[in-house]
Design brief:
single chain; 274 residues; mainly alpha; Serine Threonine Protein Phosphatase 5, Tetratricopeptide repeat; elongated
């Protein structure tokens, strides 16, 4: 019975939508999106696209809604229609890049976000999107770092951008460049264990051992099950010749990762600390 009532309501809405002007439809669609009534909004935009087949905006909005509903294949279909009509619209290219990314389509996501940066080179969000595509999909730390750095230069100051830039620099063995970015990320998001962990690693690699201990201790307190925190702390204490603390990290690491605990034990044995 409930399904029947819902179907009747949608059909009634569709009939009413056909009788409205484009301006009325657009207003109603926007209100439906605001109310998160996405199925009704899709119906309004479908009618708009039928009445105005060259409306890139209607196709874009349908693509955006399908992305919100996690129906990424369908989103791509409508967003591609939108790009055919308005290839220089940065919103459409960015939304298409996002949808492709969710589908693990590396080339599609990179192409769309690259176009977005070309359309509007001063858009921080476009560069973040390109960075994310390289970071998450292509696993290209060098390209991702370049894109994130550009976004920051253009005014993006989110903790996630600083964190990912720092992570990329660490991955590229440029921990001296990573540490300042991760410090900024930690200041913006002080309760993120992953940020403190990555910052601590960069401090260890740059031989700032006391600061590394502080950051890594913070990381393990925020995320006690993250084994790398204890591993990096153990290695930091190892170079500081603090045998007791190395042993303590080994004990904490054993329940989480016996293999890495054994590895740390071997490193301690080889160091021959007294």
């Amino acid at each position: 019975m409930l399904r029947t009532l819902l179907l009747v309501a949608l059909l009634t809405g569709a009939t009413f939508a056909q009788q409205q002007t484009l301006a009325e439809l657009d207003k109603a669609a926007k209100q439906a999106v605001t109310d998160k009534n996405f199925d009704q909004a899709l119906e309004y935009y479908r009618v708009i696209s039928e009445k105005e087949p060259k409306s890139a905006e209607a196709f874009f909005q349908m693509g955006w809604i399908y992305n919100e509903q996690k129906k990424f294949d369908t989103a791509v279909r409508w967003l591609k229609k939108a790009t055919e009509l308005e290839p220089q619209d940065i919103r459409i290219q960015s939304e298409l890049g996002f949808a492709y990314g969710k589908l693990n389509n590396v080339d599609g996501s990179l192409e769309a976000f690259t176009k977005a940066t070309q359309i509007k080179p001063d858009s921080p969000s476009a560069w973040v999107g390109l960075g994310d595509a390289n970071f998450e999909l292509k696993k290209d730390s060098k390209a991702a770092a370049a894109a994130y750095l550009k976004a920051i230069e253009l005014g993006n100051n989110s903790s996630s951008t600083y964190y990912r830039l720092g992570w990329c620099y660490n991955d590229l063995n440029q921990s001296d460049l990573a540490a300042p970015q991760l410090k900024k990320a930690a200041a913006l998001e002080p309760k993120s264990g992953s940020i403190w962990l990555e910052w601590g690693y960069s401090l260890l690699k740059t031989k700032q051992y006391s600061e590394a201990v502080e950051a890594l201790t913070r990381a393990t307190s925020l995320d006690p099950k993250e084994r790398l925190g204890y591993l990096y702390l153990g290695r930091t204490f190892l170079v500081m010749k603090n045998k007791a603390q190395v042993k303590r990290q080994i004990d904490l690491l054993k329940p989480l990762d016996a293999k890495q605990a054994t590895q740390l034990e071997d490193e301690l044995r080889q160091a021959n600390l007294k």
